[in-house]
Amino acid sequence: MKKNIVGQKINTLCVDKNISFAELSNRSGLTLEQIDLIVNNEKVPSLSPLIKIARALGVRLGTFLDDTTELGPVIHRQADAELPATFSSQLSNDNSHLDFFSLASSKSGRHMEPFLVNIKATSTYEPILSSHEGEEFIFVLKGAVKIIYGKDTKILQTGDSIYYDSIVDHLVSALNDEPAQIVAVVYTPI
User: Fold this and answer.
1) DSSP characters for the chain?
2) What pLDDT, on the 0 to 100 scale, is given for residue 42?
3) Segment 104-118, tens digit of pLDDT
């Protein structure tokens, strides 16, 4: 994946739909500064603002990561993996700790967004929880994961999974400053 493909696609969609960044800010509830950071930065923020932008533009979240579309079944081969989209739990470069590899970017009309996610070990960020409409399913492939969900903290080990409503404030991070890997499936209604 090219650097800042997400920002480029948001910009293209705004031009195609004749929506200014000010109007996108209004529709999404994000500030103009946040929109500018997302469109012009090399890092991608958390899913929450991207979901708000997707809804404001009337597109799926996956639209920002798609390169091609396929109507039938889609097979993702490890050898075909592209560079990840690096997500952060904040709108700054200082907190980029999630590398998302889309597992179905070429599937058109999908309702779920499956990702392989590498969670980098980091203790240098201020945890900021996010929330958005929809649901998430997480399965831990390697390492251990700490999930803050509302006022609770859940610890998941390799082989554990969790399914939750994304509208509740949440944050996924590696446990004990050790990297982890998960499969995450995100559903967000359009």
Assistant:
1) --TTHHHHHHHHHHHHTT--HHHHHHHHT--HHHHHHHHH-SSB--HHHHHHHHHHHT--GGGGT-S--BSS-----GGG--PPEEEESSSSGGGEEEEEEESSTTBTT-SEEEEEEEE----SS----B--SSEEEEEEEES-EEEEETTEEEEE-TT-EEEEETTS-EEEEESTT--EEEEEEEE---
2) 62
3) 877 777 788 899 999
Structural domains of the chain ordered from first start = 5-64 (1.10.260.40), 78-187 (2.60.120.10)
Please indicate, yes or no, whether the overall pTM of this predicted structure exceeds 0.85: no
Average pLDDT, the chain: 81
Residue 121 contacts residue 174 (beta carbons within 8 Å): yes
Report the 10 Å Cβ neighbour count for 30. 23
| 49 pLDDT higher than 70 | yes
Closest CA to 164 of 181, 152, 180: 152
Predicted pLDDT at 44: 65
